[in-house]
Amino acid sequence: MCAAKVERVAKLNESDVAELCDAASLAILDGGGFGWLEPPPHQTLEAYWRGVMLVPERELFVARLNGVICGSGQLVVPPKNNEAQKHSAALQHGFTAPWARGHGVGRMLTLDIEMQARRRRVRVLNLDVRETQTGAIRLYKELGFTHWATHPHYAFVRGKWTPGLFFFKNLQETDAPPNSPPKPPAAPE
Questions:
Q1: Is 181 helix (H, G, I), strand (E, B) or coil?
Q2: Which helix (H) or strand (E) holds 95?
Q3: Are 22 and 122 in contact (CB under 8 A)?
Q4: Of 30-34, 74-78, 142-146, which range is least confident?
C-alpha cells in the first residue's frame, strides 16, 4: 500500500530540494513541466525552488509518496498593491512525477491548495493548463473547476502552437471538499 500525503512547506531542506528537482525533471520529460520543455541544469532547478520560498505571495505544497516528494503545486495570491484582485488566487505550477501517478496525488494537491485558499478567504481560484495535459484537465473538471476560455497560442512547443485552457472555481458558490483522504484508485480488473 502506498502512503501519499500533502504538506504546505515553510522551509526546504537539502533532501527536499533534491527530491523536488528529481520529480520536476521527470515531469518535464513527460511533458508536464510547468513551462519548461526540457529539464534545466540541476542547479537551475535548485535555484528555482529556493526562489519560490522567498516570494511572500507564493505558498509551496509538496506531495510525498512513501515519504519521497513526487509532486508539488503553488498557491499564488496577488501582491498587496493589487487590491482589485485580492479576492482571487491562482493554483500554479502543479505537477506529479510520472512514477507517482495513479495514487491520487494530483487530486490531493489540488484539494489541499483549494482548502488553503478557502482559509485565506479567497473567493475565486484560477488556473491554466496546456491542452495536452488531459489528465489534469479531467481532474480539474471533476473537482468543479469551470473552463472559461481557450487561448490558441498559449505555448510554443516543438515548433507548433499548443492551446491553453483557463479554469476558475468560485469558492463562495461551492462547498469545501470533504476533509477526508481521497479514495484509493480502483484495482485493475
A1: coil
A2: strand 88-96
A3: no
A4: 30-34
Top-level CATH class of 4-170? alpha beta
Q: CA-CA distance, 173 to 169, in Å (whole number)?
A: 9
Residues 150-164: tens digit of each pLDDT:
999 999 999 999 999
Neighbours of 66 (CB within 10 A): 12
Cα–Cα distance between 63 and 109 in angstroms, integer? 7
Reported pTM: 0.90
DSSP state for residue 174 in the 8-state scheme: S
| Alpha carbon distance 162, 112 (integer Å) | 29
pLDDT in tens, 111-166: 999 999 999 999 999 999 999 999 999 999 999 999 999 999 999 999 999 999 99
* Residues 9, 61 contacting (CB under 8 angstroms): yes
User: Beta strand pairing status for 58-65 and 4-9?
Assistant: antiparallel
Question: By the 8 A CB rule, do 74 and 112 touch?
Answer: no
Do 131 and 150 meet the contact criterion of CB atoms below 8 Å apart?
yes
Q: Which three-class secondary structure state does DSSP give residue 69?
A: strand
